[in-house]
Design a protein that fits this description.
The chain has three helices and four strands. By secondary structure, the protein is an alpha+beta fold. The model has no long low-confidence stretch (mean pLDDT 97).
């Protein structure tokens, strides 16, 4: 199992932007067959060094994760994220 995590810090760190971003990320659920699981968590600390959202995705293989990255549904969501993103960080690992 491959797990990919993405930390997202938004340009505008308000509830409306956070909720819309969360909704956009979750909109991929059930639309990308190779996506084995998706979880979106919102930061409750709101510290200066905190990120706003954590995206956790699961795949059967690295090949599936690579295919997910170019899937049209993911590409559309990525375009939205690029427009609201201040910074991000990712960690991908095998379980």
């Amino acid at each position: 199992m491959i797990t990919n995590t993405l930390l997202i810090k938004l340009k505008e760190r308000n509830n409306e932007t956070i909720e819309k971003t969360k909704s956009m990320l979750l909109s991929m659920e059930g639309k990308i067959e190779i996506l084995r699981g998706i979880q979106v968590q919102v930061d409750i600390r709101h510290g200066e060094s905190s990120y706003d959202i954590l995206l956790i995705t699961h795949f059967s293989s690295m090949e599936d994760m690579e295919a997910y990255l170019i899937n049209p549904v993911h590409v559309e969501v990525s375009k939205y994220i690029a427009g609201v993103l201040e910074s991000g960080a990712s960690v991908c690992f095998e379980e």
